[in-house]
Specification:
four-stranded antiparallel β-sheet; alpha+beta; 2 helices; rod-shaped; about 120 residues; Beta-lactamase Inhibitory Protein, Chain:B, domain 1
Length: about 120
């Protein structure tokens, strides 16, 4: 008679333990099947033309200088339960008269170049 309440108490604990055991904390590099390109076309006269997707932020700053402003925003992966990977945020840097650069939050790698000559250099 007393076995049913025990089962109803223990069964959810076992299920939670199994689900937590299935969550992966390893986040390896994504397979690169084709070359990544910026979301906008960058003219050769822009200082963004020197950049390539995948560069480290320090390398970008060494080539073209630091940005006028930046902001950190959560990426879509920040809302995935049990996701503990590195790409939970993105950093956006604003360059006056050039556009914006977007970095991955985990490894500070350049993931997008948005060329916009009307950029004022201030965060939104």
């Amino acid at each position: 008679m007393h076995t049913r309440p025990k089962i109803l108490f223990v069964l959810p604990l076992i299920l939670i333990g199994l689900l937590m055991g299935c969550a992966s904390t390893a986040s390896g590099p994504a397979p690169k099947s084709e070359a990544q390109t910026p979301s906008t076309t960058v003219p050769a006269t822009s200082k963004f033309a020197q950049l390539q997707i995948g560069m480290a932020r320090a390398e970008v700053h060494a080539k073209i200088g630091a940005a006028g402003a930046f902001k950190v925003i959560p990426s879509g992966k920040a809302w995935i339960p049990f996701y503990h990977g590195a790409d939970r945020t993105h950093t956006i840097e604003y360059y006056k008269n050039e556009g914006r650069l977007v970095y991955s939050g985990g490894n500070d790698r350049l993931i997008d170049i948005v060329y916009d000559p009307s950029e004022d250099g201030y965060r939104d």
